[in-house]
C-alpha cells in the first residue's frame, strides 16, 4: 500500500462509527483504500470517479457553525476541498481554510471526527470520500471568502439549522453534528480546559457527549434535545447538585475547570448563570428527562412507562447495573432507605422492593402498576 494511502487507511480504521450508516461507510472506505492507491483526484473535475476530500467545519465558542453557500454544489457546505496526490488530509484541511476563508489553523482538530461517502450533484457527479475536521474559532474572526467559489458565508446557530430545510445542506451534515456532540466535543473541551482528562462514552444514565470526574464531583454534557447542550453536575457520592442548558462552550469549559478546582455547586451556579441548583423536585425531573430522552436499550421503554405514572414520577429514578431503580423522594441517591428495582426477565420485569420478596415476571405495564403500589405505601 502506498505510504500516503496507508496514512489515510490508519485514520479511517480509528473511527468509531456514529450509527449503522457510519459503520457501512467505514467498512466501504477501508475496503476501497486496501484495493487501490488511486484515491486522490488527479484530473479535474472527477478523475478518478471516487477520491478523497477534507472538510473543515469551523465551530465558534458559542456553538455556531460556519458554512459556505457553494456555487457549484448549490448547497450550504463546510469549507474544504480535494486531497492532492500524496497529500496528508490534515494539510489539505489547513490549505483549504487558508485559501477559501483566510483562516489560520491554530484550532484545527488533530484528526478528523467523521467520515462520509457521498455521490455529488451536478454535471460532473462523482463520489467524495470525505474526512471531516473541526476548527475551533472565537466566532469573531475576519473572513475573506473566495467569491469565485461561494455565493455567501455565514455563521449558523443550532436553532437556525434545526429550522432549515435539510435538503440545502450536505446530506450527512446533521449526522456530523451528532458526531460533533458525541466525539468532537471531548477534544474541543480538552483543548479549551487544558485538562486532557475528559471522556465520552456513557455515565450511569445514558450516553454523554463529554464528562469529567473529579474528587469533588462529576459533570456530564449531553446534546440538548432542542439544541445546545444539557449539563448536569453531581456531587461526590452521585447526588444531582446543579443543572442547566447552554450552547456556549466557553461556559462549559469554565464550569469544568471550576469543578476541577473543587468549587461547590453553589459556587458554580454563582459563577455560571446558565446553571441552577437542583432542589429535589428539579433534580428528579432532570433525571427522568435524561433517562427517558437520552437513555438507550430496553430500559428506555420501561422508564417512559414509569415516568408517565404520576405516582412514580415523584420519586428518584436511577440506573444501577443496567436496571431501572426507584428511590423514595425523601432519600438521597447516595443514601437510600426505601427503593425498588425492575429486573429484566424473559416475560417482562420482576419488581423487587429493597429488603422484600422479588415478584414474578410481569409485562412492563403490570410491573409499573405494581411499583406504583409499593411507592404509594412509602408515602403512607
TrEMBL record:
Q: Which InterPro entries match?
A: DUF6193, NUDIX_hydrolase-like_dom_sf, NUDIX_hydrolase_CS, NUDIX_hydrolase_dom
Residue ranges annotated for the Nudix hydrolase domain, each copy included: 49-179
Cite the entry's keywords alphabetically.
Hydrolase
Record-linked SUPFAM superfamilies: Nudix
The record's annotation in Pfam families points to:
DUF6193, NUDIX
User: Required cofactors, per record?
Assistant: Mg(2+)
PROSITE patterns recorded: NUDIX, NUDIX_BOX
Tell me what this protein is called. Answer: NUDIX domain-containing protein
Species the sequence originates in:
Dactylosporangium cerinum
Amino acid at each position: 500500500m502506498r505510504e500516503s494511502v496507508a496514512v489515510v487507511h490508519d485514520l479511517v480504521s480509528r473511527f468509531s462509527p456514529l450509527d449503522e450508516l457510519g459503520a457501512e461507510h467505514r467498512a466501504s472506505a477501508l475496503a476501497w483504500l486496501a484495493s487501490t492507491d488511486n484515491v486522490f483526484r488527479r484530473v479535474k473535475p472527477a478523475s478518478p470517479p471516487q477520491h478523497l476530500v477534507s472538510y473543515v467545519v469551523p465551530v465558534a465558542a458559542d456553538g455556531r457553525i460556519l458554512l459556505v453557500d457553494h456555487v457549484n454544489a448549490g448547497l450550504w457546505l463546510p469549507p474544504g476541498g480535494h486531497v492532492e496526490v500524496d497529500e496528508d488530509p490534515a494539510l489539505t484541511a489547513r490549505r483549504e481554510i487558508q485559501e477559501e476563508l483566510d483562516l489560520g489553523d491554530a484550532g484545527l482538530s488533530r484528526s478528523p471526527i467523521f467520515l462520509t461517502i457521498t455521490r455529488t450533484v451536478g454535471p460532473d457527479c462523482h463520489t467524495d470520500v470525505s474526512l471531516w475536521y473541526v476548527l475551533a474559532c472565537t466566532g469573531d474572526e475576519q473572513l475573506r471568502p473566495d467569491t469565485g467559489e461561494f455565493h455567501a458565508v455565514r455563521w449558523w446557530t443550532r436553532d437556525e439549522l434545526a429550522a432549515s430545510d435539510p435538503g440545502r445542506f450536505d446530506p450527512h451534515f446533521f449526522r456530523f453534528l451528532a458526531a460533533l456532540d458525541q466525539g468532537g466535543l471531548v477534544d474541543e473541551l480538552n483543548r479549551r480546559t487544558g485538562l486532557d482528562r475528559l471522556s465520552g462514552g456513557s455515565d450511569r444514565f445514558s450516553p454523554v457527549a463529554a464528562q469529567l470526574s473529579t474528587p469533588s464531583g462529576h459533570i456530564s454534557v449531553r446534546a440538548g434535545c432542542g439544541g445546545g447542550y444539557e449539563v448536569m453536575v453531581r456531587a461526590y457520592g452521585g447526588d444531582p447538585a446543579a443543572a442547566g442548558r447552554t450552547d456556549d462552550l466557553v461556559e462549559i469549559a469554565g464550569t469544568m475547570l471550576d469543578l476541577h478546582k473543587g468549587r461547590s455547586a453553589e459556587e458554580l451556579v454563582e459563577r455560571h448563570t446558565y446553571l441552577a441548583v437542583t432542589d429535589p423536585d428539579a433534580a428528579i425531573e432532570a433525571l427522568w428527562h435524561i433517562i427517558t430522552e437520552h437513555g438507550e436499550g430496553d430500559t428506555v421503554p420501561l422508564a417512559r412507562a414509569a415516568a408517565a405514572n404520576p405516582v412514580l414520577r415523584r420519586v428518584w429514578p436511577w440506573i444501577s447495573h443496567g436496571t431501572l431503580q426507584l428511590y423514595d423522594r425523601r432519600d438521597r441517591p447516595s443514601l437510600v432507605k426505601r427503593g425498588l428495582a425492575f429486573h429484566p426477565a424473559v416475560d417482562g420485569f420482576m419488581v423487587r422492593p429493597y429488603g422484600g420478596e422479588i415478584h414474578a415476571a410481569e409485562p412492563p405495564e403490570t410491573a409499573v402498576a405494581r411499583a406504583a403500589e409499593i411507592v404509594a405505601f412509602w408515602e403512607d
